[in-house]
Design goal:
GK/Ca_channel_bsu, Rossmann fold, five-stranded parallel beta sheet, 185 residues, 46% helix, 9 strands
Length: 185
């Protein structure tokens, strides 16, 4: 299990998509969220968009491998999704927040945590603003949270700077390939 996380605006989703173009046999675990879809996002493809009531019911039923409140919304990964892929012997990639990544590491010691880092704080802010999907107060909240999340990157197995999407994806591909090689030896 490979976990990609980092601050909002670091380019996690963009790097993950580039990685999957290079490694189509990987399986992406689709997270659940209570936030509203952004333009172009599709339910069941980008996220499973749930009501807060539906999400909390799954929490009560202990259906999540990890879950957290992020930017005032609930996010989580269903245990059943991950277990099904791992039981089939296939590598699974989770793209989740820092809180969730640390929960996964506690539950699965052999999971590999990869922190996506923006090249600079200025670039991070530029990316968040250029999205054009959030109001100013949301941008400020995401920037504040990003600084807190970056303080935890030392808890990860790898840190990948996303100064180029292709380069970052290739670096993660090498990380995954090295683990697969170790398993075969």
């Amino acid at each position: 299990m490979f976990v990609i996380s980092g601050p909002s605006g670091a380019g996690k989703g963009t790097v993950r998509k580039a990685l999957f173009e290079q490694m189509p046999d990987l399986v992406y675990s689709i997270s659940c969220t209570t936030r509203q879809p952004r333009d172009g996002e599709r339910d069941g493809v980008d996220y499973r968009f749930l009501s807060e009531e539906e999400f909390k019911k799954l929490v009560e039923e202990k259906k999540f491998l990890e879950w957290a409140v992020v930017h005032e919304h609930l996010y989580g990964t269903l245990k059943s999704d991950v277990e099904k892929v791992l039981e089939a012997g296939v590598d699974v990639v989770l793209e989740i927040d820092v809180q969730g990544a640390l929960q996964v590491k506690n539950a699965f010691d052999d999971s590999v945590l990869i922190f996506i880092m923006p090249p600079s704080k200025e670039e991070l802010e530029r990316r968040l603003r250029n999205r054009g999907t959030e109001e100013e107060d949301t941008v400020q909240l995401r920037l504040s949270n990003a600084l807190k999340e970056m303080e935890k990157m030392h808890m990860y197995d790898y840190v990948v700077v996303n100064d180029s999407v292709l380069r970052a994806a290739l670096e993660i591909k090498r990380i995954i390939a090295s683990y697969n090689l170790e398993c075969c030896l």
